[in-house]
Design brief:
The complex is a heterodimer of chains A (365) and B (147). Chain A is built from 14 helices and four strands. Chain A has 365 residues and is mainly alpha-helical. Chain A folds into two domains: 64 residues; 295 residues, no CATH class. In chain A, the strands form two sheets. Chain A has a two-stranded antiparallel sheet. The longest helix of chain A has 36 residues. The radius of gyration of chain A is 22 Å and the shape is globular. Chain B has a domain of 89 residues: Alpha-Beta Plaits. Chain B contains four helices and six strands. The two termini of chain B are 46 Å apart. The chains are: A mainly alpha (365), B alpha+beta (147). At the A-B interface, helix 1 of A face helix 1 of B.
Chain lengths: 365, 147
């Protein structure tokens, strides 16, 4: 690696971290305005156009509040917990490809921070580190509600990690790679040709059941409604972040929204073709190239731009889907969540693996 | 009566039911009418019978009140304080007419008891203040509400 490679890598890291940080206030705004409109209200509309600056105001409020540590907590772990929650949320995005590659001179630019050989395994291992932050927060708060909340959260995350991992195995069997770049690239192949319409080999078309299980598990994994057990005003108040205030609470909230973003990006990469162009976009690319009489290099850049755009659009859709589901589906009770996880999702994901295996053996997929 | 309907086998897969629910939320999102009002700009219309802030009705700058003491007598919260006096033309009038609105329970009995239609309750409902002042006669005569 020479100097320029280092600069490019650091630049990509900074870009992704910056974008992820911007997603948080935007998502808070979308969540509040979206939920308001779904409930026949208006939501925050005072600050800035359509209330867009509300997130900034919230952040400023949190930053300038008194940083008070309750007397009964274990100070070191209490301070450490939000960081332990937030950092893995950022780290996971490193292996997610948000565009294919482009050759500039002799250098191949990859639109992915690191195309690790263990891609998917890395995602799962880092994502499960987030449990430590939650347990630390609950335990160090020295409060029964906080501890109960963190125990619930970790139990839920661990039981859904099983079905999450098993539902992805189908994808691994079909694309026979754990590198997310490879998986995204192979989804560009054509699965079926129905006259003029060609159906690409996107994960959802080859693994519909796996997609459902994966999505449900992602909802449970990010502790979002309908599976938001760690919080519950009527039962355990605010759960594991009960004793937190100021930006320490803000970090937990940021971790939740960044986890959501990573979850949406994972769904996109594994089941919706990652950076593969949305239907119709390749035609736009060809027309745009002819219309402006672009050189080959410029066409390449337009292609990469369209790829990043389609990846972003897919992720944005799934982020919206998280909000959409949150305000539609009622909340599950604790035992119902565990029932669903162990008695429905786990057997279904095993069935999915078996059926995929049979289909691959008979060369259907 | 609690009516329990058992979900059929198809409904218990939930996927279609959840999609139906999502469609309902989306319809509300795009076409739902907001029922809230934007408070400082828009205000709710109250009926004329609303019992808000008191005022003393006056004719040509002279209050209708004759200091008959019926309102402080009927007042359950004992928040009205009147000191009677005499005008040069031998007519009785309130020298002092004070209402402690912190004690007032806005029952409207003073309004009902008044034979001269002098003390009335207006539509004004924004009564928050930074000090605990007792409303005196001058203030009560100036402030007429929406009636």
């Amino acid at each position: 690696m020479d100097q320029l490679d280092w600069i490019i890598t650091v630049g990509k890291c900074a870009l992704i971290a910056f974008i992820l940080l911007q997603v948080v206030p935007l998502m808070v705004w979308v969540e509040r305005r979206g939920s308001a409109l779904m409930q026949n209200r208006l939501g925050p509309n005072r600050l800035g156009p359509l209330g867009l600056f509300q997130g900034i105001a919230d952040a400023v409020k949190m930053l300038f509040k008194e940083d008070r540590i309750p007397g009964h907590v274990h100070a070191l772990y209490y301070k450490l917990a939000p960081v332990v929650c937030l950092v893995p949320a950022f780290m996971t995005f490193a292996v997610i490809p948000f565009g294919s590659q482009i050759t500039v001179g002799e250098r191949v630019l990859n639109f992915q921070v690191a195309d690790l050989n263990v891609g998917l395994l890395y995602v799962f291992s880092i994502a499960s580190l987030g449990v430590y932050g939650i347990i630390m927060a609950g335990w160090s708060s020295n409060n029964k509600y906080a501890l109960l909340g963190s125990l619930r959260s970790s139990a839920q995350m661990i039981s859904y990690e099983l079905s999450l991992g098993l539902s992805v195995i189908g994808i691994l069997m079909i694309f026979s790679s754990v590198k997310l770049g490879d998986i995204a690239r192979q989804q560009g192949e054509i699965l079926l040709q129905l006259g003029p319409i060609s159906i690409p080999k996107w994960g959802i078309f080859v693994q519909p059941l796996g997609f459902l299980i994966f999505m449900t598990s992602i909802f449970a994994e990010t502790n979002r409604l309908p599976f938001d057990l760690p919080e519950g005003e009527s039962e355990i108040v605010a759960g594991y972040h009960l004793e937190y205030g100021t930006m320490q609470f803000g970090l937990f909230m940021m971790a939740e929204y960044i986890n959501m973003t990573v979850g949406a990006a994972m769904i996109t990469t594994l089941y919706f073709g990652g950076w593969q162009l949305l239907p119709g976009m390749s035609a736009i690319h060809a027309h745009l190239g002819d219309l402006l009489a672009l050189s080959d290099m410029a066409r390449e850049w337009v292609r990469v731009g369209l790829e990043i755009t389609s990846f972003t659009l897919k992720v944005v859709f799934f982020l919206w889907f998280f909000v959409w589901v949150r305000w539609t589906v009622p909340r599950f009770r604790y035992d119902q969540v565990m029932d669903l996880g162990w008695k429905v999702m786990l057997p279904l994901s095993l069935v999915n693996i078996f059926v995929t295996g049979v289909l691959i053996y008979y060369k259907v997929i | 009566m609690l009516v329990k309907s058992k979900p059929g086998l198809f409904q218990r897969f939930y996927v279609v039911e959840i999609l139906k629910g999502l469609a309902i939320t989306m319809r509300k999102f795009f076409f739902g009418k907001t029922v809230t009002i934007q408070y400082p700009e828009e205000r709710r219309e109250y009926s004329d019978r609303f019992r808000g802030m008191h005022y003393i009705k006056s004719v040509n700058g002279v209050e209708n009140c004759t200091a008959c003491m019926l309102c402080p007598t009927v007042c359950p919260a004992e928040c009205i304080h009147i000191e009677a006096g005499e005008r040069p033309d031998k007519e009785k009038y309130p020298v002092k007419f004070e209402i402690d609105s912190l004690r007032c329970c806005f029952c409207g009995m003073c309004e009902e008891a008044c034979p001269k239609d002098a003390i009335k309750l207006s539509n004004i409902y924004e009564m928050s203040q930074t000090s605990r002042e007792v409303y005196d006669k001058k203030f009560l005569m100036e402030q007429r509400g929406h009636k």
